[in-house]
């Protein structure tokens, strides 16, 4: 009887393996086309690396690269990849280039609220809120391959930029940031691609775009009847006056700035305050003299029950903030 030939299984396996690597699903990834215009989509990422080799500390390079041209738009060295560092780097970008249509990032917690069970808030991170106030969108890539241009740029920079820093004898973040603009200009002259469309979609900063206010860490607090609030384990006591007295049990906003300044505001008006911080040395006589510190003993007792001497985990990481901030631990 005739023998019917079965389809060759090894051939079908080879066909499937052609579009996959070991340990990954068998599907082909189609490269994403570039955007057409400069400023339409700007990829951002942080690259932690030994940028100074053995001459200085390990640090992070924050990279802004235009999707349409692969042009390095902005580089900033920082101690770490923190919200305050991105605030300062993004401000430098906007002051130089204007506002892009959108930034494109990974799903780092700085850019995206990753907890599905998060309660309260508006679903925005501090960085996302700042961009929203400036009318800039942020998109998050689903994988590192989706933002391949900035990933490849990081690999190139870890080779070329490291060598240039070595030749220049640079070993500090401050010197590297001063060196970065000249390196960026030379890099773009050699490697940037022309866009499909010559239009530049960056928008100039508007008169109402207040970068100081946008790039501040903001949180709302409810004042007690005694006009006090807590933030980052510090007790703030508002000075009683015609503006603050009616604010008992009302919401105010704390402004924690990258340059170390701090403010408490209600409807844009800064409110005068004093502070009590158990974690710093306190002049006991000054506390006794202040008749409005009725809540201080309870505040101390509550904090003494805590075993840690650190600040709040919900407050910003302060390594990227100027040294003059009030939240240092002695």
Summarize the structure.
The protein has 330 residues and is an alpha+beta fold.
Write structural notes for this entry.
By secondary structure, the chain is of the alpha+beta class. Helix content is 28%, strand content 19%. It has a five-stranded mixed beta sheet with strand order 3-2-1-4-5, with helices on both faces. A four-stranded antiparallel beta sheet has the order 6-9-10-11, with no helix packed on it. It has a three-stranded antiparallel beta sheet with strand order 7-8-12, with no helix packed on it. A hairpin with a 2-residue loop joins strand 10 and strand 11 (269-270). It is globular, with a radius of gyration of 26 Å. The termini are far apart.
Which features characterize this protein?
four-stranded antiparallel sheet, Nucleotidyltransferase, domain 5, globular, 8 helices, five-stranded mixed sheet, 330 residues, alpha+beta, disordered N terminus
Question: How are the SSEs ordered, and which strands pair?
Answer:
Elements: H1 9-17, E1 42-49, E2 59-66, E3 72-78, H2 83-97, E4 102-105, H3 126-133, E5 137-140, H4 148-168, H5 173-191, H6 211-214, E6 217-222, E7 228-231, E8 234-238, E9 251-256, E10 262-266, E11 269-270, E12 273-276, H7 284-289, H8 296-304
Parallel strand pairs: 1-4, 4-5
Antiparallel strand pairs: 1-2, 2-3, 6-9, 7-8, 8-12, 9-10, 10-11
Major sheet:
5 strands, mixed
Evaluate the radius of gyration.
26 Å
Any idea what the CATH architecture of the domain at 42-113 and 123-191 is? 2-Layer Sandwich
What's the total helix number?
A: 8
CATH superfamily of the domain at 42-113 and 123-191: Ribonuclease H-like superfamily/Ribonuclease H
| Spans where pLDDT lies below 50 across 5 or more residues | 3-21, 117-121
- Order of strands side by side in the largest beta sheet? 3-2-1-4-5
Task: Give the distance, in angstroms, between the N- and C-terminal Cα atoms.
Answer: 93 Å
